[in-house]
Amino acid sequence: xxxxxxxPKAAIMDPEYTFTVSKRQTAAGTxxxxxxxxxxxxxxxxxxxxxxxxxxxxLKTCVEYGHRAYNTPDDYEARANLMWAGSWAINGLLSKGxxxxxSCHAMEHELSAYYDIVHGEGLAILVPHWLRxxxxxxxxxxxxxxxxxxxxxxxxxxxxEIANKAIEATADxxxxxxxxxxxxxxxxxxxxxxxxxxxxxxxxEKAFVAMDAGDVKEIYRKSx
Length: 224
Prior knowledge:
This protein has helices at about 25-40, 50-70, 75-90, 105-115, 120-135, 140-150, 160-175, 195-200, 215-220. It is built from nine helices and no strands. The chain is mainly α.
């Protein structure tokens, strides 16, 4: 919640209540958590060291326990860690001192609005293409951090190779939970790209890489 008045003073979270969450929604929820963290992790503040390490811890927790909860729904340890990670993925602390505009979520919200698809499934489709679209020589350092610290990729490899391996690892992780990897899989074609891109492209000047409607449309197109 963006308004402090909507935040609880205390919350009791019981992982056992999530044992009956379906495999599909467990996968989609994990993808949403991961994408929440990636939205704030990919920022341009090199000095935000602690925030980045916090974010990597949450990402690694999602990676470790998302598949476990998906494969064994009543695994208490998996559900508990995933629930705790979900709180950290949206409580706002990871972005303190390193503000950045969320761009991938803006794109997915349009997909869900026009096509009524599962939010996390839409994000699983978009995130790898979003990451590829933003990758540049001047920001590859952040992808190297992501690849080495989250996915355990060999740090001695060339930087661009690490970056691309990290993106592939992300896509493969989603696929392993049977999440869709293309818009056509969920019944989306190009017919509404222009209006969705126009809406999603507003206010993204302060994203990790500044974007406009043209960038959004290109990411949609590559996600087909």
